[in-house]
C-alpha cells in the first residue's frame, strides 16, 4: 500500500495536542505566576515501589496479630478496642509504598468491567494479612453469588456496583439482586448462630443482643418500612465530567444514577433496644454504629464507624433490620443485621453491625469527620479543613432520567418517552416532577397518574411522553419539587463540590430528536428503510442525497438568486 512514509522531527510528545486540550490533564504542569516570569512546576512522579521487609517482619506474626475475632465471624478483625493492633497495621502500611490511584478524573475512564480493580485496597488487605488475606476473594465471590449478572461493577474491591439504567426504575421496589452496593471494605461472613451485638457506652445497662432476642415480639414490636436508600455519591459522574475533585471514596465510586434503591425492611426500632438497656445516661446525644468490615484511611486500619443523633433514634426513624423485601438480608447488604436510617444518606445505614455505643458528640471516626462532607466550592485541596465541610445527613431533593440516554438519537412521533426517579431526603417526598426539552426554559408537568405511589421515606418512579416538535439536538432536563417546595439547582456547576457529593442539580441529557410526525422526516425514514440502510450513527454522512439536482434547479428557478441585485 502506498502511503506517507517520510518521518519528521519534533520535540512534542505524541499526545501533545490532547494535553493542550485538557484531555490528559493529569500531565499538565502547574503554572506558577507568583514571580515576574511564569514558571511551570512538574507534576508528581511515582517512582519504584519500596518495601522494608525487615520492618514488616519485626511487626510480628500477622496471622496471630490479626486473627479471627470470634467464632463464626469470618473476615472480622476488631480494631477499635485495640490501639496496638492499629499501630501494627499502620507500621506495615507505612513500611512500603503502594501504586498510585488510577487517574481517570483527569483522563479517560477505563472501558472495562469492573471499571476499576481496587488494586491498592486488595494490596492493603493482603499486606496486613491474617484474617484479611482471603477477604478480597471471598467478597468478589459473594458479588457473583448475590448480585444480578447485569450489575455495573464500578470497583471490584471494595465492591461498588449499580444496576444499569434500564433496571434502576424497572420496578418501584428494587429487587435485592439489583440494589446498588457501596462497600468501604470486604464483606464479613457471619453465622447467625454466633451473632450478637453489644449496646454500650452511655446507657444505663449495657447489654448484648442475639438475633433471637431482637426477633422476640414479646420484647420488641416488629416494624416493616418501605424506604429508599441513596448514596450521597449518586450521580457523581456528572460532577467528575464537569470538574475533577477529590475525597477518598471518589476513586472508588464514579457513580451514575443507580446508587439508589428502595426496599421493604423488616426489623425493630433502635429506640426500643435502648429502652431495654434502661435508656441513655450522662447527656448522651449520639449513637455510634460499628460495622465489622475493615476500612483503610491514611494508612490506618479501622472498622466502619458513623453516628446519628439521638433525636433521630427517638423519632423511631432508625431501624435494626434483618429482612429485605421478604428475604433474609443478603450478606452483601449487611447480614445478619444492619442499621437502616430513614431519610439519611446511605453511609449512616451501617451493615454487619457489631456494636452500638451511646456517646456525647458525633463520632470522630473518619467516615463521619473526613468523608461525606459537603465543602464550599472555593475550598480546594491545599487548604481543605475537615471543619469546612458540612456533614451530610439528609439528602436534598433530586431526580434523574433513566431513559433515553445522553447522546442517544430518538425517532419519535412528536413526543419522547422518558422514564426516571425522583427522591427527597429527610422524610420529604416528590410532589411534582417536571421535564423540559429545551434545556430548562419551558417545563411540562408529569401527570400525577404517571408517578408511583407517594410515600414518606421513598422515591417515586415516573414516566412521561415529553412533547418534542423540533429536530436535532435537544436538551432534556428533569426537576422535582418536594412537599416542602424545595427544588433542584439548575446547573451542575451550582452543586459542584470538592468531594463530589450530593449531585442535586437538574439531570440534563442531550438527545438527537428525529420527529417522524413531520411528513418530510417520515418520507426520509421510509427511504432509509427501503434501501436497508441503518439510520445511525448520526455522524456517518448521508448515504443518499436528500435533494436531487432537479429539485435544486427547480428551487433556484423559483427564487431570487443568492446575491441581491443592485
Ligand atoms: N459496615 C458498613 N456499612 C456501610 C457501608 C460500609 O462500607 N460498611 N457503606 C455505607 C454506604 S456509604 C452506603 S451508601 C450504604 C449502601 O448500602 P447497600 O450497599 O446495602 O446498598 O451502606 C452503608 N453502610
Ligand atoms: Mo454512600
From TrEMBL:
It holds the Pfam family Oxidored_molyb. Its cofactor is Mo-molybdopterin. Residues 184-364 form the Oxidoreductase molybdopterin-binding domain. The keyword Lipoprotein does not apply. InterPro entries: Ig_E-set, MoCF_OxRdtse_dimer, Mopterin_OxRdtase_euk, OxRdtase_Mopterin-bd_dom, OxRdtase_Mopterin-bd_sf. One of its GO terms (cellular component) is mitochondrion. One of its GO terms (molecular function) is molybdenum ion binding. Residues 391-512 form the Moybdenum cofactor oxidoreductase dimerisation domain. It comes from the Eukaryota. Keywords: Metal-binding, Molybdenum, Oxidoreductase. GO terms for biological process: sulfur compound metabolic process. This is Oxidoreductase, molybdopterin-binding domain-containing protein. It comes from Paraphoma chrysanthemicola.
